[in-house]
Structure formats: structure tokens, C-alpha cells
Amino acid sequence: MEQIVAPQALSHAVDIDQAARILQRAERILVIGCSGGGKSTLSQKIAARFDLAYVSIDRDVLWLPGWVQRDSEEQRDIIVAKVQGERWIMDGTNPSTFDVRLPRTDFVIWVRMSRLVCIWGAVSRWIKWMGRTRPEMAPGCIEKVDWEFLRFIWTFEEKFTPRVLAGLAQHGPDVPVLQLKSRGEMRQLLDLLGRPA
């Protein structure tokens, strides 16, 4: 049985109805969660709905062509520059940059699907984009799935949740957080927000 920390562990957890109301006026939104959970898709839909700049940590910060990872100092410099923007939605979890991102964030969406949903999401995405680079990735990063990536997804909740909770508490204690734990909840949120004009 998968252990998930209860939403009460977050000091500013909100429900979907509250989140929809807050998102109507949010200028800067952070979307976090495990790979394969649907962060990028959700982020792009919200970006289109509210005309926000979409920032993908994978595409814009982390990766160079051919799956070469940028130097961590350069990554941080890029994030510092990106969060200075007035209106954005940023998709990416890395808690080591919460100190830069959370103070500029109005709202956090934590896409917290089960690991089986995330693995299915990653595998189905790989099948869809096989041999190509999806739009949320850096050029030249051909879609791939390997055992290391699947193990990362499988252990994400156990390894990253304590770091995410600690980072939220330390760097964004007053930032409201919505946890989405199913595709149905994600659809419900998007329905409440309405479709892009």
C-alpha cells in the first residue's frame, strides 16, 4: 500500500473550489509532482486559459540537446531570471530551487498521482512521442524511458515528499497548495477554470 502524507501536513492546503477561485487572479503558479503525472499538460492548459508564460524546467532550465544536463549554477541563474517575470506558470519539482521560486509564487499545484498512474503516464507518453522530442523538452532530447527513470518514478513519493513538504514549509509557508490525486480531480479543476478563450 502506497503511503501518502495527508493534506493536513500542508499549512495552506486548499480544495478544488478554493483553488479555482485563487487561480482566477494568480499571476505566478508553480506546478510540481512526479514525472508522468500530467504536470506539463495541466500547466499548458492553465497557461492558455489565463495567457500566462509557460516555463518548463525540463525544456528551459535543466536539459541541453541530447540529454546533457546544464551546470547547476547555470540552472539556478536561469530560474532566478525566469521568476522575475510578472505572469508565469512554471512546471517542475526540484525542491533545491524552492528558495528562489516559492517567494515569487502565488499558488502551488501539487500533481500527486499514484506511482502506477505516473508510470502509465510516462510509458504512454514515450509511445506517443517515440523517436521525437515532445514540446515540453529541450530540442534534441528524444523521448525515452529506461529502468532508472521508472525506478525514479516508483520511489518518488518516498524520496521526494519529505523534501517537498520541508521546502514548502520553509520557503512558502503562506502559499496556498492544491493537491490533485486523480485525473478526475484534474478535469474537475479545469472545468471550474473554464476553457481558453
TrEMBL record:
It comes from the Bacteria. InterPro entries: Cytidylate_Kinase-2, P-loop_NTPase. Transmembrane segments: none annotated. PANTHER family: MODULATES DNA TOPOLOGY (PTHR37816:SF3), YALI0E33011P (PTHR37816). This is Putative DNA topology modulation FlaR protein. It comes from Rhizobium freirei PRF 81.
